[in-house]
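Annotators were shown the component list below and the corresponding predicted structure, then asked to write short factual statements about the assembly.
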Amino acid sequence: MNLDALFTPRGVAVYGSVKPGKMGAILIDRLVEGGYSPVYAVNPKAESYRDAQGYDSILKIEDHIDCVIIASPAKFVAGVLEDAGKKGVKGAVIITSGFSEAGYHDLEDEMDAIAQKYGIRYIGPNCAGMVNTKWNFMPTLESTPNPGKLAVISQSGAVGGLIMGMSKEANVGVSKFVSFGNGRDLNAAKLLRYFKDDPDTAVISLYAENIAEGREFMKLLAETTKTKPVIIIKSGRTASGQRAALSHTGSLAGADTVYDAAFAACGAIRADSIEDMLDISKAFCQLPEAKGNRMAIVTNSGGPGVMSADASEHTVLTLPEPSAALKDKLREFLPAFAGLANPIDLTVEGTPEQYGKAIETALQDEYDVAVVIDIGTPYLEATPIAQEVVRAAKAVGKPVVSNFKVGNDIDQAMNLLDTNGAPCFASAERAVRALSKVVEYSQLKAKVVDMNRTFETKEIKTDLPSLLEYEANDLCYKYGVSVNHCIFVDDKSKVKAACEELGFPIVLKIVSPQILHKSDVGGVKVNIKSVEEAEEYYDKMEKIGEGKDFRGCVLYHMIDQSIEMIVGFSTDKQFGPVVICGMGGIYTEILKDVSLRIAPVTETQAMEMLKELKTWPLLNGARGGKHYDVEALAKLVAKFSELPFVYPQLKEGEFNPVFIYEKGAMAADCRMILK
Amino acid sequence: MNLDALFTPRGVAVYGSVKPGKMGAILIDRLVEGGYSPVYAVNPKAESYRDAQGYDSILKIEDHIDCVIIASPAKFVAGVLEDAGKKGVKGAVIITSGFSEAGYHDLEDEMDAIAQKYGIRYIGPNCAGMVNTKWNFMPTLESTPNPGKLAVISQSGAVGGLIMGMSKEANVGVSKFVSFGNGRDLNAAKLLRYFKDDPDTAVISLYAENIAEGREFMKLLAETTKTKPVIIIKSGRTASGQRAALSHTGSLAGADTVYDAAFAACGAIRADSIEDMLDISKAFCQLPEAKGNRMAIVTNSGGPGVMSADASEHTVLTLPEPSAALKDKLREFLPAFAGLANPIDLTVEGTPEQYGKAIETALQDEYDVAVVIDIGTPYLEATPIAQEVVRAAKAVGKPVVSNFKVGNDIDQAMNLLDTNGAPCFASAERAVRALSKVVEYSQLKAKVVDMNRTFETKEIKTDLPSLLEYEANDLCYKYGVSVNHCIFVDDKSKVKAACEELGFPIVLKIVSPQILHKSDVGGVKVNIKSVEEAEEYYDKMEKIGEGKDFRGCVLYHMIDQSIEMIVGFSTDKQFGPVVICGMGGIYTEILKDVSLRIAPVTETQAMEMLKELKTWPLLNGARGGKHYDVEALAKLVAKFSELPFVYPQLKEGEFNPVFIYEKGAMAADCRMILK
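Structure shown to annotators:
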């Protein structure tokens, strides 16, 4: 994908009125002020504006033009692209709105067709433009950022503008910014692919309100996070929550949870807000990779030290105390009143040298990452301490974040930290949060899912919207999922053989596509202990099924009861099959204690799902209870999660319950709905 | 409590070296630069510094001195106060450290005795000073704030300094700031009392690492929040969590939960961080009281609108759609493409007039509070919109917060909003969070607990560290708690009468202080159906109890099983008795689904505790289940929570289980531990 004409154009033409306050003029202002040239203005009266010579047609411009910036009314955009194509233009920034987002799909189709004809790659329509800081190229309506290593992809122009504006406050530099608007050509996924290989970009951020083609996006994401961290704000959590799926399993798989699962599976970091995204991006832009999660807090004041410790809870960070040996080492250069637990509290008297040595010693010996806090006073300098922090962090080569506040030179100290690899945050808590995400990335990266698993697909032959119980059971059984195998008999004469094969006691159930709630009509008989009894109940079922499309009966060996789990899959609109598991009954229904992943999952992932459950201790021998065979259950979950890929017709599937034993796990009841 | 000499002194003397860089000099710098006079310097060589005339004794100063600022070494402080007392000084700011915090309790006692002798009120020792902006009085080592209505009380000097520094960034003005350090005289509670009546203070904030004398503090807090919001940062959540209590009930009542409960019960708002505290304070300083929780979002851009909606989840705010009637009204002045759901999206073309009218109409007709978002562009003005927001908010008199970002005059617009009652926040999410706390305060305030309930106390006579089961049962029964009443018999001859009184079936248990686990030794017999059987088992118990201080047996009528709840109280170090309840078994033990309150609770509070449980739906007929008698359970919890007040010797008590029925609730097993 060559986007040079778009990102590093040689020659740009701006379409749109150049009257004061009009879009064309504003865009030329931004381009000229950004330092880009040559810029041309194309408008009916061939009006020039600032450095931009005016033409009434792009074809009259003698110079080479790589890219057009379009703010003309929507109905003219196709014509503009036609001309641009003839001129040899290969990139376009289409600011103009009034396309598919306003219901004018035909205008957008027409425009896209022409762009394709000429091989023009474009962003928009209905976008706020883009920025390439290195190329001094700023065709955007929004604020422009300082140069740096963060790429910003935003679906929303306003949010893009917010991010640009706030990036300056946060002292985070930007490599490129793209507001992709309707994303007809370049969308989130394609831009991700571009930035993956962009040498000027070290960290990628994305603001999205929805993700189209979730699986494709995930593949790219998984590929990208191998080399570059990706931080995503996905808004609309509330609205997403309303897209509740219809079935029981679906309703638990609230869509926002699906986004969480998709991002985590691909090693991406989800941010809560723009501030959070910029904090995390700042950390990634500046820090070396984390090799572990042991955090040291080095501080000169107790309160913020305690608040940092609080902030590390519920993150991947741990806060171990220094060993006796490390404490001895620290004592050699720290005064007696310094706190040697973690936080390492140098107290208000902490000197630059003590800071430097404490950081160096702690990180060299026992810690993986550090947060350094200096709360100074208005009459003291902070820069000497900042210099030592920077020196120590560089010497050790491990991630160090900082929170410096107050001091007669605080701005200088903060900037020094920000630009020398020990980034400074608005508070100790935010420093810790950002650091935790750097550590989390290194953990997630190590277990990014294989998005390229393929399965040989098979067809299900049925006229019904869902499988009959025995069909679903059979399908699972043959695929090797641990189910309590059943035998379907369509005639009383076959009952005996089935009983003998299964062994008593036996459960017998009526089979009819018209009878959904079998128990309610007396369609289930448990604890059958003889062939005669089984045959007698076959007759009874036949009577119950009269006139209701009676197909026969299904027989099971009656298995032991145990802890009941639910395992299911459903099909998410964006991401396709997702798998859930949880303890049955009120645990899933009332307490919502459910784990969810994008399907398929491996046994390792399935085990993580189980460990995530609040009820996990109950499976794992809590308070002297039994240890259940979680490996067998994980295997069952993993195998079950493959079914919608092997049988693409399947929309939903559920085992309720699955019994988990001290040895083994077995699904007892199965339900499958087709698309 | 008259603290005029401290907060509004006429004449101040500073003790401490006035050599450059020394504390005395720094303090005089701050006082002089703050605009205060007259300042005197007291030091052995009678050195003057800047405007401060030097003396070697305060007694030689002819002018009146109300307050001394002390930075002399700890061993001299008592002497300083002695002199000051003779001079008629009634206030002191004791910066000096090296007292109780360093183990020198005697020095602190001596100093305090002298202060008391002369009626000197003081802050510190070991503090960073104080500020009264209105009096231009800034004897502090920390940053000084802008004037305003927020009082800041900080246990930590560094955190106090952070708050002062960050208050300027946040555009929050401060009335008074006190770093109370060791808090020997003026501590959090006393300062709260002072600020409650301080006419210059509208909002009170507190940073605390621990709260001494929790009940006294709660009383003051409950009193204060009637008229002024109090926002508290209580750090050390992690460390607090480690202070796990010994007993089962205690271990569930993790200390941080106790702080949460104490603050909420008194109508105080707990903040997560300094940024959060300043956001919330800013809202309180500017906004009128909230009359309800219906929030309108008025925005010119979709993304931040969605993020605001997301941020309102898990708060007390609701986000209803406008009614059809209101939509009609809005349509009269908004264009067709404006979004009329909630968010009310004026789109990028939103004019100042549309903002103003939309806010006014929405708040007049259907909404209680609003967040207004304007994400502009660098070439447009934001001030005209800000002016309309301010006008509309004033016209309606309801709380309006804002998030304005980007614009060629953005600083002016933000300042206008901040200083005219529609405060502007760093992000829409933070605006919503701050607004939600203003609404939460109005809700909490309406149900602040009565901290002045008193109970007639009674004595328990026993030599044992805990009550015997029947004693605990009796105590509850007589106090009117719904327990399954038992009869204790110390002789076989009394068994018959007991059986007749209770009715069969009967449970009989051995009574011996030496047998704690009765079932393990065969000391419990259930389902006894005749007097003969009961007598037979009395004999058996007597045998089992041989040589083990056998006291007799206790008999119960055997009650029906039902849903099992746990109800308990324990004694918190800071706050005294707390009460918990939850569903029994794994719900409390594994899933930690427990409600906690500071005891005693009313029935209304107890009902709130039940509704807070994740398992509440199970009590309340979830999925067609039974409706249990939650009123009866609430009554039991409330009554039980009074016991540690009636019997102050009680340290812990637990009912496990309490059966809750469709009609009634009854405790089946009771345990009480004495202090």
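Statements collected:
1. Chain A has five domains: 1-126, 142-286, 289-445, 485-557, 563-674.
2. Chain A touches chain B through 63 residues (CB under 8 Å).
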